[in-house]
Amino acid sequence: MHGARLKAPFDSFKLMIFLDIRTSYFFAFVSHGLLAIVVASFWRSGRSERGFAWWIFDGVQLSLASLLLLCIGTLPPWLILTSSNLLIFANLPTIETALRAFFREPAWPGLSARWAVAMLIFAAWVMAMEGGWTYAQRVIGFSAAFLIQLGLLLAYVVNLRGSGNRLAKGLLLTAIFLVGTAVVVRMGYVLRHMDAMRSATDDWLLPLLTFAAIFAAFLRTCCALLLMHSRVEQHLRAAHRDIERRANYDQQTGVMSRAYFEVQAQGMLDKATPGQKPTALLLLDVDHFKSVNDTFGHLVGDDLLGKLGQVLRQNARSHDLVGRLGGDEFVMLLRDVSGAAAIEFAERIIVQTSGILMPDGRSVSLSVGICSAVPGQAFAMIYRLADAALYSAKQAGRGRVAAHDPFHLSRAGAPQRADASATLDL
Fold it and tell me: Is residue 121 predicted with pLDDT exceeding 60?
């Protein structure tokens, strides 16, 4: 009678532990499933991101494993244990596969070794179960094998590089440390109670390991969403730079657009100091460009403008500005140059432009108007003066340089073309 009284509370306690285990399995099933759904909902709008299908599979694996463990007493034990442990052993390689796919790293042969280890560990566990190992012995074997896999994942995560991945890396390391600690603690507890550990109802720390796995999965999901956010942010920055480039640069010639050039030019003029050399503005115009379009078509005209833009960009220094005002009219702002040096520069541009040949073999002719500017002078004012100089060059016969030079530094005469660069056929 006395033994029956003691047995009743003990049975009730065992039932409570068993219910706690089932509760932890149910919570794991729901939690892992919901985390997989969260990642899937974010991934659905951007399926070009590689690796996120594996993140979803990570949650699905653990959710299915928990569901199988919930079915103890309903399905054959060998089916439950084999299937659930297969999913658990395959989980860590899945996580590494997700990371490698996201970072576009070569998956093989390094990843094949991870999956091979997982399969060997699972095969060894099946043999142990078939060999009649006790519950405690299977727990020790499972824990040791899982720690090996965890160590392989840890080695990969530790070697992740990139300043933008620090928080994600920290979350993954925390998840690994959390699960590893729970496995070691449970393993130590089982080793101390090998004889008393008969089944999961005696394994008091099994719910602890289950909840540690849930929290680790939460950290991994945060990591996945963080990586997705960082990748989306990179795409947005790249798209913003592309939009900015398209708005600020002429796509046909590769030089600045008119609006962007005017803003940059005025900024350069405002920053100029009284002690430095003058700034020179060059207006460049292709002679008889309309006849080129009329005779050879707009494709030839566009090709001509593209090659002219290439010549201008190749001759400009890093601190000079090159822009297209519209049509066949280009503009350059040269910093720290004398009027004579600006004229020599313009003559060199004319010589190199003459190397661009039209379909009938004629060279492209270019007229240039120059105006020197003093620090703080308004861009609109020097533009009008350079435009007047360009008109003078056109009136004087085209294919030459004319300068509005208050310092009287210009040189008369058309440029020599003997040192023209290699021709660019249109």
Answer: yes
